[in-house]
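Q: What would this chain look like folded?
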Amino acid sequence: MATRIVRRPLHGVLLLDKPIGWTSNDALQKARGILRAEKGGHTGTLDPLATGLLPLCFGAATKFSQISLDADKRYTATLKLGQRTTTGDREGEVIEERPVQTDRAAIAAACRAMTGAIEQLPPMYSALKHDGKALYDYARAGIEIDRPKRAVTIHQIDILSWHDDEVVIDVACSKGTYIRTLAEDIGALLGCGAHLGGLRRTGSGSLNVAQAITLEALQALTEAERDARIQPADVLVAGWPEVRLPDDEAGRFLCGLRRRVALADALAVRVYRQGPVPEDPGAAPTRAFLGTAHITAGELIADRLLSPIEIQEVQDLPT
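A: My prediction, written as structure tokens:
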């Protein structure tokens, strides 16, 4: 008989290096089982074809998963020139082949043309819903659905390598960007067509795949070592301005009350309760993450808050 996994409360973020062929949910459930976590979620779907950074949120950190979902992304993409496929990637059937007659200057020009604010037509082989059903279900049935273009921003495209019919690019982009569509559009500009031959997500907001761990490596660790890989929930907002509140103000803030602060207006800040001053002058002052907020006209207004129990479980500080 299979051993029943005894779940436990676990709070924080695991940066996973997702393997190829796995859905994001498959990877989440495998990691959740290894960690014995009660509650978990991922921060946006990464296609089975893709590998790379998949931030997983557990427990209280799931309250802030949308922040990572909305963050800018970074990818290393391999473009196969001269072939268009039914799916826009290497898993589809080849529907057109053209000779590849290009040079690095032309490739660079095509990349520049796709940089900035652009519109993309979402591919039919995508998880977007139409009447409650994913577009790829219609595509597999041979049905084409009218769909509006989406505005996205390509911040930067750098050519990492080019050899014959294969181009590898580094792409920094806004959320919701379809790299398959970008590959096809670059191929169209070059006049030879292209599809996505490989994809690796290397960044999400301030998070980097260099910090991530594979499922195999995670499985090989002891439980204490696995727990050490869990980063605190505020890693998702590490780049936001920081606000610290004394104990009495922190308590009122956690009750949802607006607090007066002598700070400039800000759309998003991370808020902490300031702990007692350490006896050691060289030690850093303690603090406890309370949640996120915004500042308007000198008022600190809560957006997403941890509960007192979550704060105690996350940081083992008195509430």
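The longest strand covers residues 150-163.
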